Amino acid sequence: MEKILILGCRQAMNATCIACSRCLVGFNRKEGAFEAYKDQDAELIALLDCGGCPGATVVTRLAQAKLWNAPMNEKPTKIHVAPCITMHCPHKDTILQKTRAKAGCEVIEGTHPYLPDNIFG
Ligand code: SF4
After folding, report:
1. Alpha-carbon Rg of the chain, whole angstroms?
2. Chain segment 1-11, per-residue pLDDT in tens
3. The pTM is what?
4. Cys-Cys with 37: which of 24, 42, 58, 115 at CB 3.0–4.6 Å?
5. What was the pLDDT predicted at 9?
6. Residue 114 located in a structural domain
7. What is the predicted pLDDT for the residue at 99?
8. Which residues of the chain have pLDDT under 70?
9. pLDDT value at position 121?
């Protein structure tokens, strides 16, 4: 059973990417980067923000998620980094480097595929 944690942007999650629903729907439909779980059991166990600019506290955020989920004995086997970070964050490289260095599980860039080609076209 894969246990999925989605890592997103503190400024975007819910505030501008309303309700984080694109990531949630993408997971439910096993589309985008979640297509990898079409033929295997996977659960979404956490939606975690980066801790805020300039991404320096992302490792602390992961540690907080670990402590908070410890009573339920839940921890991620995969971390998916959302488009709000991979496509829009000026500190993306810092966040990815720190997360990969400390997560202790696979870190995958990408979640949902619902990315418009343009705004007004
Ligand atoms: S560091 Fe990047 S992902 Fe985090 S709040 Fe700032 S812009 Fe968003």
Report:
1. 14
2. 999 999 999 99
3. 0.95
4. 42
5. 97
6. no
7. 98
8. none
9. 82
Whose tokens are 């320096």? That residue is: 56
For ligand 1, the distance from its centroid to the CA atom of residue 15, given in whole angstroms, is 13
In a domain, 121, yes or no: no
How close is the Cα of 12 to the center of ligand 1, in Å?
8
pLDDT of residue 33: 98
Say which CATH number the domain at 105 has.
3.40.50
What pLDDT shows up at residue 67? 98
- Indicate whether residue 85 lines ligand 1 (CB < 6 A): yes
Count of structural domains within the chain: 1
Domain limits for position 58: 2-109
CA distances to 35, 89, 90, 108 from 52, in Å: 29, 11, 12, 20
Q: Is residue 11 part of a domain?
A: yes
Protein residue with its CA nearest to atom 5 in ligand 1: 52
Q: How far is the CA of 32 from the centre of ligand 1 (A)?
A: 22
Nearest CA to ligand 1 atom 7: 89
Give the C-alpha distances (Å, rounded to integers) separating 5 from 46, 72, 120. 5, 15, 32
